[in-house]
Design a protein that fits this description.
Length: about 130
């Protein structure tokens, strides 16, 4: 159920994100900003089943809108143009981004009331932790 992800989530921790950004090919200057940014994640679901994921920070706001299991074109916060598919797998919201023959996965799940986002590129895994705003 996507509904359990709905709400505004505030980032409280980010581990290994610099290594993950390096692994996907993000340049130094953008990584510096990415490491300092603590975005809020806002998840909504519309009546027609379209899911909206908005990442909001003082630096940049990005938004993707999608239906589960339907591929779409995404321009990421670091300006990669990816073909993305989001699916529900075992209670996790799994976002697969493909570009230039590469692929990365972002797995989001709710654990102990927190939203845990695992960013996976090969053997590099970053973990970003969010708590729900009241």
């Amino acid at each position: 159920m996507v509904e359990k992800f709905v709400g505004t989530w505030k980032m409280i921790a980010s581990e290994n994100f610099d290594d993950y950004m390096k692994a996907i090919g993000v340049g130094f200057a953008t990584r510096q900003v990415g490491n300092r940014t603590k975005p809020n994640l806002i998840v909504t679901v519309e009546d027609d089943g379209v899911v909206c994921l908005k990442s909001q920070s003082t630096f940049k706001t990005t938004e993707i809108r999608f239906k589960l299991n339907v591929p779409f074109e995404e321009t990421t916060a670091d300006d990669r143009k990816t073909t993305t598919v989001v699916s529900l797998e075992g209670g996790k919201l799994v976002q697969k981004q493909s570009w230039d023959g590469k692929e990365t996965n972002i797995e989001r799940e709710i654990t102990d009331g927190k939203l845990i986002a695992k960013c996976i590129m090969g053997d590099v895994i970053a973990v970003r932790t969010y708590v729900k705003e009241a």
